[in-house]
Amino acid sequence: MRDPENAAKGACGVFPAQDYRIEGPRAEHPERWPGWSSAGTSFAGPLCLKEKAMRRIATVFLLMCALLPSGLGATAWAQGEHSGHQAPAQAVQAESPEQGAEEMPPTIEIPPEKRQLIGVRTAQVTRESLVRTIRTVGRIEYDERRLATVNTKFGGWIEKLHVDYTGRFVRKGELMAEIYSPELLATQQEFLNLLRWSEARKREGSPWAESLGRDAQAILQAARERLRLWDMTEGQIQELERTGKPLRTIKILSPVSGYVLQKMAVLGMRVMPGEKLFDLADLSTVWILAEVYEYELPFVRVGMPARVSLSYLPETEFSSKIDYIYPTLSPETRTAKVRLSLPNPKGSLKPQMFSNVELKVDLGPMLLVPSEAVIDTGTRQIVYVDRGEGLFEPREVKLGIRTQEMAEVLAGLRQGERVAASAAFLIDSEAQLKGVAPLGGHKH
């Protein structure tokens, strides 16, 4: 017979509850087999639990079968990404089997939308001529070779002063002052006496007149030379010979054409031998002294062309070249002076004016990258090489000469490779967050 309780329990399973006759140990010890009885016991309790477990296993199996394609796709995608990151290194290993043990170069992926967002721009590594531009400030100075001073080699007093203010322009040979000198007056009188004695010896008819005439001429020549050494001009000496009267005052003439920079002469003052009366400067040519930093000195040489401009003459630009490089360095500014010469026919260039000086140095062909593509950590220089498909490889390079726009590459890159020329710091930040560093480590 069917047990009503077991029949109710059997209703929870797939199979209906049925009566079974149990013999053996189960009949002898029914307490060990809950849910069973020796007479007409149905397979109700244990069968219901096992059937539920089988249903759950079947449900999980069906779900796994339904999700199996997407799971395989995700796995394949992950493997593809991994193989894509390592493709450059595998290509290098395929080219050089003997380098199989080397470490594969790391890369960082920047998706196209992210590249556009941060403004990544790449540039090609090229070999071309590098022109370095040195810009500095110059100061206009007097041409020291065209400076002159006016003084006397005798003592006396200024009786007339014809150049009486500073800044006046004087021409060469122009009268500047007249000086009375008792010493020079006595020398003139001595010269005139020797001149008369020499002429008297010529008129004598004595046998020794010829010998005395030669001696008189020698003495007269010595007196004439003494007047020249005291800065009397040849015209003044000829006037002295023609008139036979000594000149009370000696005329002081300008030795050059130029401007009076300093005037120490005052009317009536006493003048001592060698005392300075005037300082003159010829401004037909001026100097420009420009300062160049010590790290730029290796590129500067004598004869290098230069361009000079002034802020107050914007429409005018002057061409010049370096005449001289001074041998000393300023300890305060760590700069050396270079000298340029400029003609100044109109006088528009005035001493102590400031000017802008531009020097261009052609350094010849070399391997170049944009300067903004290089991340300088202080101890290393890093660039990010575009490997294609959004992958960038951090690579350490060795740089040479650097300008504001370009940098010379000595090692680490080849001609034709492309590097990140903008937003390199953003790429580097992303690489640091993801732990991507160039081979050998990247220490900021």
Question: What would your notes on this structure say?
Answer:
The radius of gyration is 54 Å and the shape is rod-shaped. The longest helix has 41 residues. It is 30% helix and 35% strand. The N terminus is likely disordered. It is α+β, with helices and mostly antiparallel strands. It has 9 helices and 23 strands.
Rg, Cα atoms, Å: 54 Å
> Span from first to last CA?
87 Å
Structural class computed from helices and strand pairing:
alpha+beta
Physical arrangement of strands within the biggest beta sheet: 5-14-17-16-15-18
What key phrases describe this protein's structure?
disordered N terminus, four-stranded antiparallel beta sheet, six-stranded antiparallel barrel, alpha+beta, 444 residues
Layout of SSEs?
Layout: H1 4-10, E1 19-20, H2 25-28, E2 41-42, H3 45-85, H4 87-95, E3 108-109, H5 112-118, E4 121-124, E5 126-142, E6 147-151, E7 156-161, E8 169-170, E9 175-180, H6 182-203, H7 209-229, H8 234-243, E10 249-253, E11 258-263, E12 270-271, E13 276-281, E14 285-293, E15 305-310, E16 313-329, E17 335-343, E18 354-370, E19 375-376, E20 381-388, E21 391-402, E22 406-411, E23 418-422, H9 424-433
Antiparallel strand pairs: 1-2, 3-21, 4-23, 5-14, 5-18, 6-13, 7-9, 7-12, 8-11, 9-10, 11-13, 14-17, 15-16, 15-18, 16-17, 18-22, 19-20, 20-21, 21-22
